[in-house]
Amino acid sequence: MTHRLMRLVALLPLSLPLLLGACAQSSQLDTALAENRQLRDQNQQLQQQAAADKAHISRLQEAIKYTVNSDLLFPSGGWQMSAAGENVIAKMAKVLAPNLQDKLLVNGYTDDAPVGQALRQKGITSNQMLSQKRAETVMAYMISQGVKADLVTAQGFGEADPVASNSTAEGRAQNRRVEVTLAGSGS
Which terminal CB of the chain, N or C, has fewer other CB atoms within 10 Å? Predict the structure, then answer.
């Protein structure tokens, strides 16, 4: 028996690296499994985000947006439509009114220039108020041209969401706009 014990003791230094290696491999395996679970979770989150993005893109594809420069619709610093502006909106309403079933959104935007004294005297103290008045004017004119009142809404956003830089006259002109969006049934 002592001979057998001596033999085991002699083999111990040889088998110790194998045992330690197996422990190290087990630890690496645990780490790899944890990383795999984490990657699987991330993949699932990305698939969910992709599905949400696809639905959003689908809704956008079902919408039609028409942008009209406010300089075409309104005199500078005003919200009463010009004759040219009425002509543009009347043509749009003539196409939309007969078959309109989905919501029509009229959104007004301005540049970032502060409102002038003339507007302030008329009670318009901010770009948001001016853009709201302009959107409401377009909405009211569309209704007068046959668009169903319960299917159209107006919202002013002021200088929010610029489409160009406000540092140039051209950019400011692009930012002064009214967007008429026919939302599809998916939105």
Answer: N
State residue 28's pLDDT score: 72
In CATH terms, the fold of domain 63-182 is 60s Ribosomal Protein L30; Chain: A; (3.30.1330)
Query: What pLDDT does 50 receive?
Result: 58
pLDDT of residue 56: 46
Among the listed residues 160, 172, 106, the one whose alpha carbon sits nearest the alpha carbon of residue 136: 106
DSSP states of the chain as a string? -HHHHHHHHHHHHHHHHHHHHHHHHHHHHHHHHHHHHHHHHHHHHHHHHHHHHHHHHHHHHT-EEEEEEHHHHS-TT--SPPHHHHHHHHHHHHHHGGG--S-EEEEEE--SSPP-HHHHHTT--SHHHHHHHHHHHHHHHHHHTT--GGGEEEEE-TTSS-SS-TTSHHHHHHHSEEEEEE--TT-
pLDDT exceeds 70 at position 125: yes
Q: Taking the CB of residue 83, how many other CB atoms lie within 10 A of it?
A: 6
For position 41, what pLDDT does the model report?
A: 76
